[in-house]
Design goal:
7 helices; about 10% helix; beta-carotene 15,15'-dioxygenase activity; disordered N terminus; 6-stranded antiparallel beta sheet; about 550 residues; mitochondrion; metal-binding
């Protein structure tokens, strides 16, 4: 069943009898000192380094948080040396965590939870506090990112924390807005081979919101250097400056940053007045299926936005797979869904449902699928209108000029129909070091036949066939690819993933798969509980 018509909806298989996963979104204790693990099978001795992961680890201070994204950041480190693994974890000592802990109540508002007024204040003081602008959280729970050789944990506000990748201790709070005029940045920067980092962040000015492309140099000038030298390459005005799009990440090819302006919108009036109305930030985020999605291309060298805009039907995307230029086209590969309401489905009460209520929640959500858009780069005044410009052989994507500066695109699937039996695919990863911004053959991800990932998938783009690792009641994290020494082929290496289960206490393990065969090489069993997390990186010590 092809999916190239804008009128067609994403197909998926309805499921029944989903298991309850409440333990995967319960608070846990930190493990600040390294503990040994029990290795089963073999972990290759050439792996030297640590898998660093981030995600929520505490979901209440007196009162409960409402949204999965609100939980306090818990950092994890799996240190791998000589075929052995140790584990440690530590809560990020953010201002949010510290203040909440001191009072044992939610002091700082998060994405889906509004902090309640201080009960120690009198009625008039509590009333006035509703008119204060909420301070952005520094609960950096989304990812580990690297700037100028230093590791930071990041969320999507203006505050990151520099951390020691060995001890996981918080070293320094770093505020983007002290260096450039932005009010936040994504937790998914891209990198050129020389270490130059690119990111995106919004700014809110008197004239409304703007999207900004950020560049951070690879070298630091001194030992205390953080984001010095960061620059805004380009500012883009939203379609509606009072209702900019939400974005979690962006694409990057060799020469272009690709910003995807999707119809997940942020109503700035509702967000700014949320505290007055007793509403949290997520109440101002909504899906507008009547708006098209727009791809903006920004030249990385000149910082100029290309005059041609590329449009497609309403879709939502959280993560891109890769983007590369070839034969006058830019291929943009990403995981996307025809429905953009899922961000407000990840309330903790939904994740803790069971029985028919859980099945219904899952079966009404759109599934994310890997898709490719083919964007023609050489559009001129001579380019014919209303004609498919995609001349790539074996590609079913289309690109049609509506006007000299508007190209309407439809996608091609980067999968076969059988992926629907695994709930689509998210948390995509590639052999980034060698194949980011280049033509590639393989990508890896999690299958989502539940509200969280429940399988690991390796997709071959040539055959559209995939390999799967899946076992009952086991829930894998985002796969991380590590290149093997002397690697010659794209998939020479291993995949690391943290596996957790809701059915057995303290039964976490680090899984190591052969990236080529997708067979298990070994696992390191950790006698702790870990909640389902978001993202991470491998920090090589080789």
């Amino acid at each position: 069943m092809a999916l190239n018509s804008a009128a067609q909806k994403t197909y998926f298989t309805k499921v029944h009898g989903l298991p309850n996963i409440t333990p995967l979104v319960n608070s846990v204790q930190e493990t600040p000192e390294p503990i040994p693990t029990t290795v089963k099978g073999t972990i290759p001795t050439w792996i030297h380094g640590s898998l660093l992961r981030n995600g929520p680890g505490k979901f209440e201070f007196g009162n409960h948080y409402n949204h999965w994204f609100d939980g306090m950041a818990l950092m994890h480190r799996f240190q791998i040396e000589d075929g052995q693994v140790t584990y440690r974890s530590r809560f990020l000592c953010s201002d949010s965590y510290t203040q909440n802990s001191e009072r044992n109540r939610i002091i700082v508002s998060e994405f889906g939870t509004l902090a309640l007024p201080d009960p120690c204040k009198n009625f008039f003081q509590r009333f006035l506090s509703r008119f204060e602008m909420p301070k952005p959280t520094d609960n950096a729970s989304v990812n580990f990112v690297k700037y100028k050789g230093d590791y930071y944990v990041s969320t999507e506000t203006n505050c990151m924390h520099r951390v020691d990748p060995n001890t996981l201790e918080s070293k320094q709070k770093v505020d983007w807005s002290k260096f450039i005029a932005v009010n936040g940045a994504t937790a998914h920067p891209h990198f050129d081979p020389d270490g130059t980092a690119y990111n995106m962040g919004n700014s809110y000015r008197n004239k409304g919101a703007f999207y900004n492309i950020i560049r951070v140099p690879p070298e630091r000038d001194g030992p205390e250097d953080t984001l010095e030298g960061a620059k805004i390459l380009c500012s883009i005005a939203p379609l509606d400056k009072s209702k900019p799009s939400y974005y979690h990440s962006f694409g990057m090819s060799e020469n272009y940053v690709v910003f995807i302006e999707q119809p997940i919108k942020m109503d700035l009036f509702k967000i700014v007045t949320g505290r007055l109305r007793g509403k949290s930030l997520n109440e101002g985020v909504y899906w507008d299926p009547n708006q098209e999605t727009i791809f903006h291309l920004i030249d990385k060298q000149t910082g100029k936005e290309m005059p041609v805009k590329y449009y497609t039907k309403a879709l939502s995307t959280f993560h891109q797979i890769n983007a590369f230029e070839q034969d006058g086209f830019l291929m943009l590969d990403m995981c996307c869904s025809d429905d953009g309401q899922s961000i407000n489905n990840f309330l903790i009460q939904n994740l803790r449902q069971s029985g028919e209520a859980l099945d219904e929640m899952y079966n009404t959500m759109g599934r994310p699928y890997p898709r490719r858009f083919v964007l023609p780069l050489n559009i001129t005044s001579e380019t014919p209108l209303e004609q498919n410009l995609n001349t790539r052989p074996d590609s079913t994507a289309t690109a049609v000029c509506r006007t000299k500066n508007q190209v309407f695109c439809t996608f091609e699937d980067l999968h076969g129909e059988d992926l629907k039996d695994y709930g689509g695919l998210e948390f995509p990863q590639i052999n980034y070091a060698r194949y980011n911004t280049k033509p590639y053959r393989y990508y890896y991800g999690c299958g989502f036949r539940h509200l969280v990932g429940d399988s690991l998938i390796k997709m071959d783009l040539e055959s559209k066939k995939f390999k799967v690792w899946r076992q009952p009641d086991l829930y894998p994290s985002e796969p991380v690819f590590i290149l093997s020494p002397n690697a010659e082929e794209e998939d020479d290496g291993v995949i690391l993933s943290v596996i957790i289960t809701p059915v057995k206490d303290k039964s976490t393990f680090l899984l190591v798969l052969d990236a080529k065969t997708f067979e298990e090489l070994g696992r390191a069993e950790v006698p702790v509980n870990i909640p389902y997390g978001f993202h991470g990186v491998f920090n090589s010590s080789a």
